[in-house]
Write a structure and sequence with these properties.
Number of strands of chain C: 0
Largest sheet of chain C: none
Distance between the termini of chain A: 27 Å
Number of helices of chain A: 12
Order of helices and strands of chain A: HHHEHEHEHHEHEHEHHH
Chains: A alpha/beta, B alpha/beta, C mainly alpha
Number of strands of chain A: 6
Helix content of chain C: over 70%
Largest interface: B-C, 75 and 56 residues
Oligomer: heterotrimer
Distance between the termini of chain C: 9 Å
Amino acid sequence: MQQPWYVRLQRIDRRIVYLFLVAAVAFPMFTQLRFPTFTTPETQAVYDAVERWQPGDGPVLIMADWGAASWGENGPQTQTVVAHCLDRGVPFAIMSTGFEGPIYTSHYADQAAPAFGREYGKDWVNFGFKAGPNYGQIIAAFMPDVVKFVQTDAKGTPLTDHDKLPIMRNVRTLADFYMVYAIGAGTTINDWVGLAKPRYPKVLLSYGGTAVTAPEVYPLMDSKQVVGLLVGMAGAAEYETLNAQRLKKELAALRAQRAPPERLQALEKLIRTAQHATWGMSMQSAAHLLVILFVIVGNLAYLYERRRAALDREARQA
Amino acid sequence: MEASGHATVGVFLVALFWTAAIIVNILRARAGRELFIRRIPGLTAVDEAAGRSTEMGRPIVYGLGLMGIHITTFASLAILQHIIRVTARLRTRMIVSVCEAPVYPIVEEVVRDTYRSVGEPEQFNADDVRYLPGGQFAWALATMGIIAREKAATCFYFGWYEAESLMLAETGFSVGAIQIAGTDQLHQIPFFVAACDYCVFGEEYFAASAYLSREPVMLGSLVGQDWSKILILTLILLGLISAQMVESGVWVHNPVRFLLDSWSWKHFWQILPRH
Amino acid sequence: MKRGLIRLITFAAGLILVVEYFWPGRPGDWLDVSRRNYLDFTAVVGAFGLGVGWYQLVHGHAVKLARLRKGWFHSLGFLLTVVAAIGLGIYTRGMSPEHKPGEFAGPWPQQAWSYMTWGLMNPLVASVFSLLAFYVASAAYRAFRIKNWEAALMMAAAIIVMLGQVPVGNALTYHLPRWGQLPVWKTWIMATINGSAQRALLFGMAVGAIATSLRLWLGLERGAFFERRL
């Protein structure tokens, strides 16, 4: 006997759900649908922290603990902050506990550097990755003596060679860094808060995580241990919007100053291409709307079934 | 000069009380005092879930999670031992999947010793304690494959889980398994709650070994934990009140803040007169 | 006697870290140095565990292959992949100081490594992670039912957060005053309600973790493994 429609509506084959999801995510790709983003306070806080950097504050440490799995969220988070740092002239060091993060981050830096006239060794350095059984152990070993722990950059240049790596001139311990920007699919920020904050309270901590791990970091922001947070791809899209607004103004200013065409072209290309998260958010919007629709449909059918059962019970009793 | 990074005086006093609370209650439990623990549905269902496997003649799959030698893994091992004790009597097959190499020899020993302790050493099968390396998703996919191929009747997920939690749970659901999950990873709780039949999270996860074994030492430490929580809640409340009083100018100093922040005994005696 | 010795060693090992944390010392003093040496030592011991695990794995699959048991071709595939991955990784170490994502140039071992990593492993890992989107959709549709008022409250919060997180939510309500905008509601729910709940759970878990650690350190842990004859 065929089940009633309200029961079938609660038990739609999950393959049909998947098909709808594919269609919903693909739709914005073809329609180029875009919606304006709203900059949340937590993203603005990270942006403001980079904006507040002054020469002499020390470099930013970008802990790129992510890989291909979470590239969709962590990739744009890394790319947009790297672009911001290069634009503002904030020096940064790249490090990770996995091999992929530094490769991707370094690639983003190489892509964006020509637009701002930055060079490796002076404006950024890649420490590569450091393997270890425990994330906390790696941080604990890194913090008190950066040069001894890292020894050489990813290209094999000793960190003590200040001719090739002038960025390392005044860097000895974590205290010489301005901020740690931890990006990853797991809550690596907890280790930084627990190990780094008590010993180096002046070093700012910020986090770029997947949307799943972000809720756990809100209490840390509330207690001012973490200065700001990028929540998944949405956070990256918000940061990209802030970046794009600033870069467009800079492009106009550079055109007025008749800057070299290579630099103008590089900046135009960066503005055009560094919009992965913004592009992805329209697809995420469609996916969210679809899931909400399915949940509503399922619940309407469920509530109807309950009402029907209650009425049948009353009829039988009568 | 950078901060020493040591415990503050306040942290030391809290830790002292904590330790004392746990040890006192362990001694009380050993002395025969009856200690009450509320019912935890996820753990109460463990025996029922294990029994279901026996009825259906299908194996149990136990996932230990991603972490290596860690407190989360040890808590999971305690639960594993209990489940083995239950299933060994019922002669149900159990497959344990391990992600990290350093923990694999420990898990193998735990499983072997537990079977031996219940008098069923011949039930131990080394091939059913599987080390599945390759990282998070390789382990998850391998475990999903085991669940699907073996058509597990019961799946237990106790340990450190990340993104693969929902994948495992959905696979278990697709084969009709009853699933009980427990983790200390807050961000995976929603996925386990949505997809599993029972979920044990947060403090319940660490209380599981005491709850299942009902061993006096474990129960005593559980009650000691609760005393510690009461202390923390009291401190939070006092801190809240005194912070509000300082904000409104009723008091000129915040004693709770002072106690928790004073970072060394020397500093404590130096700043005490000013307060 | 043996069990007592193990408990003594466990206690002594834990004591180093506990004393270092509570003793009012200075960075660089003998306690700090002991802690760092101790942590290095645990890393080395962990590496030995890696060897044991890999031995079991390779041995198990090699026996299956040698005896041509059911599924032997899976074991063959596994062993070949292990040899290729480890061999190429070691052989190409230091060949090029930088890799660029998706770069397939260079000598043949480096090309092979690049194909294996950027061409095979990375897309596979990314695809598996992407599966989560589908699983979340099907789990949400199946599990979220308004069975009581608490579930209804949770559902309302979930819808606000889901819409507030994406630009569509902003587009729907940006013309409203600030207090009516979905992203503002979402930020409030995440920072205030979620933050409080997370904090409460974190306290409980930290208490539980400390109690479990204390039991292990003081040798009070119970269970077949901890009570077995040695």
